[in-house]
């Protein structure tokens, strides 16, 4: 038993050593560059899947192993760790830092929810829409972390309102009257009493001890039925939590900067096929936005039906008087919005820069009309989306946000400097350096596969798949990616599979976009487990969900997502990129299939 405990404690260390030794015969026996690169690939894949080492640490292994195996010189490997992608990421993080610093994200979310009304079904759709919109520009994780406290407050307010209605009915039947019942006061009073007895865990706002005690209290309340007065209240909390988790992921599909997997795909594709120049912010938005809208709408219907039922008659009934629940819900949203106060100068400037960045991205090279990049026709292809991101990002460090003052010895208050919209320290706290290193490691791994000839070898071995229908190949690759991303990180999954899928497309003489686009989109479909992605973990930590709830709901959303992607590949996406023919910018047949 002691030996087993020892092994469990040091399991990650043993896994690293075991993996390196077990796979070592591969390069020793075969003694080819392809085998040596395959050894590196298998080691990195194992470490990424098991997280025996931190993902970003594993991503540094190509810089160690490729020079030792003679696959690539060290300086060439190092150059792969900082690409155009990283400049784009820096500019986007500058925007995200300013948005979150000045609470613009919260104002947008609350305003959108106030617009759709307080009917439970429409309220859920409002939360999903606002979350998806924010996730287009912010990271999925920060979006979910920002919206969930608002959703939790609304959910608890609805439960409190129902308790107040029951108390009022009891008072009425006992013979007393209370015609002057004020919803706001009664709800707030009940909410105060509830807070004295129970604590709802909010990630990032309570310590570990508080979370543990809250979870214990939650289990206790679930067993006695005191936490949720009715099963419907519990189902509503589950519904709202899952809506936030899934919509924050779905929203990230729509823009290249919305999620790291999109950025990784764009950089990999533009490096592997530099003559294409067909993947940019505008073209990606046109292909992914319709898919995201359909997936979001169908997911809303699926989750609504699964947890609360879907009553069209109640949803579209006009002139219906608001219930006490709906009034309480509207009141808490209104109060949260009023706490923000009037819109400030810093929020206005951030919003303007945000709009300017989006417009410049869309108009750089829209495809159907000449974009502003045509003004620099002498240097075609030089200006990219990262150019726009850097331009706007630098402005956040330049534009004044407020004056800095000091008091002179005479008591006079004078301004001596100004503070910009964001500072370097604030930017550093938001910058995901681990993702930057992870993506760089993926680029280095892809370069090594090309230099060693492993990519061509894999493509040649996969060429028999060309006898299958293209739609079946797309379906198989999409299901493979969707399954793998449930147990591995999304960036690691897409980084690992992009070189392989590119080689497959070239070997069977199919437009690479035909396979890479659906695979990239499906990499984000990590809906089944709490550990599948950070938004799932955030909403799961609130204690309303069980794993089986997420599995049942996520399976339906996964099916919807893959089906919509397959539909898009046979309709609007095919016409958008002319995927029916093997393009001239891809490697010719002789090079693509050479062993």
Automatic annotation (TrEMBL):
Keywords: Ion transport, Membrane, Sodium, Sodium transport, Transmembrane, Transmembrane helix, Transport
Primary residence: membrane
Region of interest called Disordered, as start-end residue ranges on this chain: 187-206
Regions crossing the membrane: 12-30, 42-69, 81-99, 119-138, 239-265, 285-307, 343-362, 382-399, 470-501, 513-532, 553-577
Entry GO MF terms: sodium:sulfate symporter activity
PROSITE patterns: NA_SULFATE
Topological relation to the membrane, as annotated: Multi-pass membrane protein
Annotated Pfam families: Na_sulph_symp (PF00939)
One Gene Ontology term, aspect cellular component: plasma membrane
Similarity annotation: Belongs to the SLC13A/DASS transporter (TC 2.A.47) family. NADC subfamily.
Record-given protein name: Solute carrier family 13 member 1
Protein's gene: SLC13A1
